[in-house]
Amino acid sequence: MSFQTFHASAPPSLLRATLHDRTVGALVGSALGDTIGLYTEFLSSTLAAEAYPSQTFTLLPPAGPTPFKLDMHRAAKDPGHWTDDTDHALLLFLSFLHTASTTSSGPSPLPTQLDLAARLRVWVQQGLRPLDTMPLGLGRLVSTVVASQGFATEPARVAREYWGKTGRRMAPNGSLMRTHPLGLICLWRSEVETFAIAAAMSRVTHADPRCVFACALGSALVRAVVRGDVVAEGDLDLVIARAAAWFGAEGGEEELDMPELERHVGSDVGLGGLELDDPPKIGYVYKTLGAGVVLLRMAIRRLEESGGGVMVRGRMFEELITELIMCGGDADTNACFAGALLGAYLGYAALPDHWKYGMTHGEWFVGKAEALCRVLGLVDGEYVGAEDAETRVDGGREPVSQDQMEGRWMVLQQDAFKKVSDAAKASAGAGAGAGAGAGGKRGSHGLGWSGMLSWRGREKGKR
């Protein structure tokens, strides 16, 4: 049923409840995808299967939280934490909330490039200030662009110049992972406005046309799914076509390589065809875009085959996200975007309890999602973002000095090394007790093919 048909036939209370469920589902679904995706991020599909042979994950006792395959990449966090992907989405989300108000007579202002730039600078230096967490996962592109002269006042120019200096070839997924909240922010705005604001927010750091287009399409898909405008694969394909047409007319002088796009989002593409764990290309933006589109197609097909069964709907998010992250590669970012689309399609109520109630800072996160729903008129209640200190650029906290941050990094690194060392000793002891045949298990605590990837800064061009 389309949004227009639903709007005409459904009681207003049911319409609001459905849109509310889908809006919160998109936000929480994305954070959950990110959180669960960390289990296999930077692993190959083969190593992921070896590390998690049951292919099941839980964040709640008594069975959980499921322990990580412990290496220096995962040792800096505990199970249940989201990563930089959700942090960056929150920067954009909080930027909107800060100027939003239920008392306003008109629509709340959209985020600006300058405000996002300011928030990115704070995050790079001090982490996510509302929660006082560390900036784990800072990537080469974002770190270079944000640190460049002029970024604070002309971020899009700086980002474009960096793209030019690097050969106009880099198209990582660091802007796609943050822009999905715009599809919700633009719920009552036009699709064209959604394309435009998402493209602008990508250009703050990511100027490649593939990145810009992916953000425009991704945000518009979230909007369309929440509104009920995408209920069949044909509806999805129409959004893709409209996004491509818009980009051709308004997106800039660069043209899209349509065959390349089709190889990632076409109706005959499957997860295997995306080769998500191909080491040189794991952070490619079209892989992440394709992962989300493919999972949405799979959800549509499974729901159609089941006749819309409630039991199928209740299992689908967990099954599909698990299937995705077991492909390895940039699993957290792929699942972050895919989780936004699936959460929008299935709704918050269909998200697995043992994930959403085990996510660290989950209650805080849902509170911010509810604030957006009040601003959008999906639930009753008042909200004035200017009175919510956590939406400020500084997160309502005192700044952390460089010396303090260095101290935090040192403690974090020492704790991470200790975790890995203790796990290696325990594994070695278990191997000795079990005999020579268990010796191979020691490798399960190494760095895998991701080598010396650091949680303090990403390599391989990611982000």
Automatic annotation (TrEMBL):
Key words of the record: Magnesium, Metal-binding
Gene3D superfamilies found in the cross-reference section: ADP-ribosylation/Crystallin J1
Range of residues in the leader sequence: none
Pfam families: ADP_ribosyl_GH
Binding site for Mg(2+): 83-85, 330, 332-333
Source taxon at top rank: Eukaryota
Binding note for cofactor: Binds 2 magnesium ions per subunit.
InterPro entries: ADP-ribosylglycohydrolase, Ribosyl_crysJ1, Ribosyl_crysJ1_sf
Metal-binding in keyword set: yes
GO molecular function: metal ion binding
Cofactor: Mg(2+)
Claim: Secreted is one of the keywords in the record: no
Protein's name according to its UniProt entry: ADP-ribosylglycohydrolase-domain-containing protein
Naturally occurring in which organism (per UniProt): Cercophora scortea
